[in-house]
Model the fold of this input.
Amino acid sequence: MLKTLRQIASVGIVSECPPEPDAGFAVGDQLQEHIRAVLGRALCIRHIDAGSCNGCELEIHALNNPIYNLEGLGIRFVASPRHADLLLVTGPVSRHMEAALKRTYEATPDPKLVVAIGDCGCTGGVFGEGYASCGRVSNVIPVNVAVPGCPPSPGRILAGILTAISDSSKVRIASAEPA
Amino acid sequence: MPLQSWLTRSRPQPGAPGLRALTVAVDQWRGIAQDIAAASGRLLALWASADAHAIPTIRAAFLAGPQGLLLSVPIMHPESPYPGIGDLFPASVRMQRAVADLTGLRSSDADTRPWLRHAAWPQHYRPLIDPPPQILNAQAMVDDYPFVRVEGEGVHEIAVGPVHAGIIEPGHFRFSVVGEKVLRLEERLAYVHKGIEERFTQLPILEAHRLAARVSGDSAVAFSWAYCQALEGITGNSIPPRAAWLRALYLELERVANHLGDLGALGNDAGFAFGLTQFSRLKEQILRVNDTALGARYLLDSVIPGGTQRDLARADAAALGQCLREIADEAQRLRIIYEEHEGVRDRFNGAGVVSPELATRLGLTGLAGRASAQAFDLRCDLPCEPYTQLSVQKITRSEGDVAARVAVRFDELQESCRLIQHILASLPDGPHRAPLDAPAAGVTGAGLIEGWRGPVCVALEAGPAGTIQRCHPHDPSWQNWPVLEHAVIGNIVPDFPLINKSFNLSYSGHDL
Ligand code: SF4
Done:
């Protein structure tokens, strides 16, 4: 126990400031100037791997490390789409995940946001489209923001999430008041 | 016939050192498989080469004594089943089912259920042979898979997945339980099957290392190195010494980063969130020094045909060395904390046991295999440059439980940190890449690299004019997924996430 406490004390606080939202990630041109929404209540994210190589998952995991400290920003991952405001989707969508992805999307309450992660989520990436791959996420469900990179760094993923929630039309999601 | 007489008939196989190749007739196939099994050989991979014009061929890679052996078995009568080897090498069963799904070649083994194919393509469609269909099911469909049922008083089923509650890859697990106790687990995978093997045939052979790196992103260096090793075998070029040493540096960094990630997650699954916080911080340190010293957090594009993408500057090497020294020290401190923590010890010890006997019979491989006394490590058994000069210490345990898989990770982490210091201190001067000759059509190369999870095998057949005829990338998860089904028997359902994590198998690398 003493060693554990000593380790905690010697490491101290390592969390860093979050990045700015990035205009470059917007799929449409709905991006507003500022993040209007203050994260009054926790933004709930459901992650779905729809066919990724698992590289993007490694960087999404990193968001939870103490340096990016996602929870500290009021963002957390939830286990069910029914509790989610935002779906974080990785991979080209494999045909075997197509039904599961659509089902998850439908199970997520409106209004909902979808952020497609990685070159695969944006374009199908190196896997493209084929007998087993539907390609980009927006071929299967509507996408608000797509974050390129292979894999994108945690900073870029976070910027993509912030970009999505700063879209004014979806502002209710992130506001303190219940919609 | 003893194995030796088969080996004398074999010829050298281009690619990984110590590999031999042999073509046998289909009526000799079971005979040689029996001889390999009798000599305690290991199945590394099994796949099929088939296209519309050539004789379809079953291929298998084995580790047989001090040699690797690549067998080819031409199938003259593809309409009748070829002899299965599931009784000799249980890990082959799913590989044979996958061959049937992709090429229509069936084995004589009893389990004829599809494995990689769900409902995305019809049974008669052979993805690796038939031309792409115009429209594959316009409707997303879910099929009906015949799981094995366990009958009995008080037995009920729990089904989880494919989408899981955490940030993990999709797969389906069907438990048969009494109370909390697991009687049986049946896995169903292939949700992230993307058609990687077909995709390879659409890419130029000199560029497809990028796809290889993305077979399983967490093993990008292992796969891209194995691919390049196969390709360089085909062209007959050797790479500059500096390139080989840099590749080994990347491979060990990949091992350290993955072990750090797993050790944190395992602590967390044992109810010790402190472990996750600490280890994920250490992992982030490596990723950042990778970024500044090597140009990327994850080394997906670092290994290229003929060498490496970048060179390593002296100052960057020093920064890497410094970072890895700190990591080694901190990991050692954290290990003591894990070992002294009663709650953690309690959850790790005796959970998810795979006895050495079971591991041998089922062919458990890689890191998990070494935790169950399967003393195989390609870096020692079939070392390529520079491992021939690194004298890697092979790490094994015999308890075969979660604690043993944790201990192997801790030990390998230290060993990799030692190797990295050694590599940084002895990096040969000279170029880090060299041009390759044009790959000749029809030549096959095979690469074998010990990734952090276990042996990665890539078999590559060159087509005409810089194309790929066939490429099969093989992840050790193929061997280990079926063993996980055994490891959880008799454990309680709430321990499954911990046991599963202690293997940490790849879905993408398996599903292809
Ligand atoms: S974008 Fe890159 S890292 Fe992410 S799933 Fe695709 S190939 Fe893997």
Notes: Chain B has 17 helices and 13 strands. Chain B has a mean pLDDT of 93.
